[in-house]
Amino acid sequence: MSKLPKQHKFIDLSDYGRSPARLIARSLKGTSLTPIHVTTMFIISGIIAIICMLNNYNVAAAFFLVLKSVLDAADGELARIKNTPSYTGRYYDSIADIILNFLFLLTFWHITDGSIIFMLLAFIGIQLQGTVYNYYYVILRNNLNGDTTSRVVENVVPEAMEGEKQRTVDIFYKIYDVLYIVFDKTIYYLDRNAMNGKPFPKWFMTLVSMYGLGFQLLIMALMLLLNLEEFVIPFFMGYSILILVFIGIRKYVLE
């Protein structure tokens, strides 16, 4: 099951792991493993990547970063195959992503002996970048009656779906809200009218997918393979300038 109708599918630069993710999901369809288990697997993959970076095993670190991205897609694919979407899984996934992103950049800071201030700025940049991508992508999916587990505005606790407990959803939502509220509200206020226009064209979504987490991890992996780890933090600081470019295109070209 795709997140978008066929006629609106675009080339998603961050979604290179979708095919292997589907294979993983299909292989797990008849097992007792759940999407939550797969999310836990990508957390483990991310931790292994960090351990490899700390020990200068750059090739292995790059592999586990990409594997983390594949597994990040596989949990959603498994949820769709088993028809078990959940807000618990959605928030657990997002909480794991933001914590791992911080730890990845903290590790790059540690192994390059750079500036902690620059590391924090790069982290803020990465999160705002990902929020831009998710904001426009969720709006597109909602407008086209696609996958609606993610909501454009996460401002109230959702009602638990079948198979999950409301208390669990409440707890995960509160954690999600604390971690993401600043980033979500920043992008929302920069382009609050985005959800009122026509569906975004494919070329625009492909451009914005440069900010997808999968593409961000791929950039980190490539820099590790090229022994350019000291440039990761400066790169993501500078990469953030495209946030204003993409929002400007949406507001003044696509309006």
Automatic annotation (TrEMBL):
<keyword id="KW-0808">Transferase</keyword>
<feature type="transmembrane region" description="Helical">
    <location>
        <begin position="203"/>
        <end position="225"/>
    </location>
</feature>
<dbReference type="GO" id="GO:0016020">
    <property type="term" value="C:membrane"/>
</dbReference>
<dbReference type="InterPro" id="IPR043130">
    <property type="entry name" value="CDP-OH_PTrfase_TM_dom"/>
</dbReference>
<keyword id="KW-0472">Membrane</keyword>
<keyword id="KW-1133">Transmembrane helix</keyword>
<feature type="transmembrane region" description="Helical">
    <location>
        <begin position="117"/>
        <end position="136"/>
    </location>
</feature>
<feature type="transmembrane region" description="Helical">
    <location>
        <begin position="32"/>
        <end position="51"/>
    </location>
</feature>
<dbReference type="InterPro" id="IPR000462">
    <property type="entry name" value="CDP-OH_P_trans"/>
</dbReference>
<dbReference type="GO" id="GO:0016780">
    <property type="term" value="F:phosphotransferase activity, for other substituted phosphate groups"/>
</dbReference>
<feature type="transmembrane region" description="Helical">
    <location>
        <begin position="231"/>
        <end position="249"/>
    </location>
</feature>
<dbReference type="Pfam" id="PF01066">
    <property type="entry name" value="CDP-OH_P_transf"/>
</dbReference>
<feature type="transmembrane region" description="Helical">
    <location>
        <begin position="95"/>
        <end position="111"/>
    </location>
</feature>
<dbReference type="InterPro" id="IPR048254">
    <property type="entry name" value="CDP_ALCOHOL_P_TRANSF_CS"/>
</dbReference>
<keyword id="KW-0812">Transmembrane</keyword>
<protein>
    <submittedName>
        <fullName>CDP-alcohol phosphatidyltransferase</fullName>
    </submittedName>
</protein>
<comment type="similarity">
    <text>Belongs to the CDP-alcohol phosphatidyltransferase class-I family.</text>
</comment>
<dbReference type="GO" id="GO:0008654">
    <property type="term" value="P:phospholipid biosynthetic process"/>
</dbReference>
